[in-house]
Amino acid sequence: MLPALAASSLLLAACTGPESPEEVSRAFWQAVIEQDAGEANDYSTLVEDAGFDGYQRDWQGVELEWGRVVIDGQEATVDTVFSGLPERAEPLETTTYLVKKDGQWLVDYFRTGEALNSGPLWGDVMNQLEALGKDLKTELARHSDDLAREFEVLTEELRQQASEAGESFSNLVDEYGQMLRQHIDQLSESLREALKNNPNASVEDRQLLNEAVIRLETQSDALQDPDVESVTESTRVALATELQLGELGEEFSAYKAEWQQRLAEMEKQLAEYVDQLQNES
């Protein structure tokens, strides 16, 4: 009876797949060693198989050892040691970084890659976005004085009216939130397409696109039931992301023209929304 129960437990565990940070790390690195882009995608923050590059290393014959696991809220780290790396006599000690998304632990692909390569070889896109957010008016003004002004007015109007939200104001927030979500979903889909169609783009460009998709999809989820906070934050993220896409290489020229057109359309819709808010005052 007990052997049968144990066998059932093992079968159940196999069906549920890796769940803990260490289990996910093991599955992810096994996929990397086998150069299995699909599996690596499943266990990491990659949004497209085309984003997988195996960290530009030869993994044949490489062996792994696991060390300390630290879980801090929605983030985790797993000490990881690689032996048998080509052109390296000593084992390489590094860290596998994970984040928890929708209840599932995933390897933070690019942050882990930075640690693997002994330092931040590429910019931290999230830090860049945070810096951009702190000085968004200045950055937007470089592209459009009107857009910077409209975002400033939007923020102030929402702040003033949120405490007195009547039905008409709530309807406006909902209407704009749904429009914004559609815009974000279309942009996210376009970024996925650009990433998929340019697998040979630079690591920096693929990281920028991958992280942008994650940010946009997070904001899209937040806009399922839009409120003042989600509308304001999603507007900021969408604008900042679209401006940041201008940093991509020349192979994305056609996409950048499309994204610039989207930015112009969003500027128009934002201006119309602000006018409606002011008429409600």
From TrEMBL:
Domain of life of the native organism: Bacteria
Question: Taxonomy-wise, where does this protein's organism fall, top ranks first?
Answer: Bacteria, Pseudomonadati, Pseudomonadota, Gammaproteobacteria, Pseudomonadales
Could you list this entry's UniProt keywords, alphabetically sorted.
Coiled coil
Keyword Coiled coil appears in the UniProt entry: yes
Q: What does the record list as coiled-coil region(s)?
A: 126-164
- Identification of the protein by name: Uncharacterized protein
Q: Which SUPFAM superfamilies match?
A: Apolipoprotein
